[in-house]
Design goal:
Its main location: membrane. By secondary structure, this protein is mainly alpha-helical. The protein has 14 helices and no strands. It is globular, with a radius of gyration of 21 Å.
Length: 275
């Protein structure tokens, strides 16, 4: 009995090799841009004295989510500093924000385009399904091929893994805007840009911000995984705890990730609510 074997893996390898050889200049430009953004964020976050940075984060929590959460943020951030993980936490925050900004820059326009084109929606939706269901570790392989080891491939893998929610929810939010509202804006002679920026996006903003929240949470979930290729930050602490069987150190790194995730989650959730 003849066993049929589809050479999918071989095709992928050939494609990756071709892109590595012929698009190296393009990948170098992307690497320089991402590295510049990452270094900028890290320089700002680690350049500001820790107590001032802590105060800024707590102030944001106070203004957005209230007194109780602000007190919890103070306790959590002081705990991170007490565990000597402040620098690693700022590195992780820089990676998450860089990946989030890139995901938003690509995802929101794509989501708007999908909302306006059923054909594009039918093409992109299976790709988003693929991106969300593919094991996160798989993204590390081509990222290392194209960008070597370090923070940049970690950021690229994080963007790919975390972008689908903001694309889906942007498209959903735009599609859910009432046709009556659109017809009313048409009756007043609104142009396409006016309808988009003054009607559709404002009404869809709560849904878009829900996508932002999910993107940030998924970015944080990639922290430990990206550390396997030199992503740095708190992921390195957790990975060191795993590889060297240092349970306490791994727990401290994991606890710092949880604290950072809770703060970012509460703040981003509040963005879609009226104060």
């Amino acid at each position: 009995m003849t066993v049929i074997s589809l050479p999918i893996g071989e095709v992928v390898e050939v494609a990756i090799d071709w892109m590595t050889k012929n698009l190296s200049g393009f990948f170098d430009i992307i690497k320089l841009i991402l590295l510049g953004v990452l270094n900028l964020f890290e320089g700002i976050f680690n350049g500001i004295p820790w107590f001032i940075m802590l105060g800024l984060i707590v102030l944001i929590c106070w203004l957005r989510v209230g007194k109780k959460e602000s007190i919890l943020a103070i306790i959590g951030l002081c705990l991170i500093y007490g565990m000597n993980l402040w620098s690693e936490t700022m590195e992780t925050l820089a990676l998450v924000l860089t990946a989030t900004f890139i995901a938003l820059a690509i995802g929101i326009p794509l989501g708007i385009w999908m909302a306006r084109s059923d054909k594009l929606d039918q093409i992109v939706r299976p790709i988003l399904d693929f991106m969300q269901t593919m094991p996160a570790f798989v993204y590390l392989i081509p990222a290392v091929y194209f960008f070597d080891l370090g923070q940049v491939p970690g950021a690229v893998a994080t963007v790919i893994f975390a972008m689908p929610p903001v694309v889906r929810l942007t498209s959903l939010g735009i599609r859910q805007v009432s046709k009556d509202v659109i017809e009313a804006s048409d009756s007043f002679g609104a142009t396409y840009k006016q309808k988009l920026f003054q009607v559709q996006i404002p009404l869809a903003m709560p849904t878009i911000l829900a996508g932002l929240n999910q993107t940030i949470m998924l970015s944080l979930s990639m922290v430990v995984i990206s550390s396997m290729i030199g992503g740095g930050g708190l992921g390195n602490v957790v990975l060191r705890g795993i590889t060297q069987m240092k349970v306490g150190e791994g727990f401290e790194g994991g606890l710092a990730v949880v604290i950072l995730a809770m703060i970012l989650d509460r703040v981003t959730q509040s963005l879609g609510k009226e104060k």
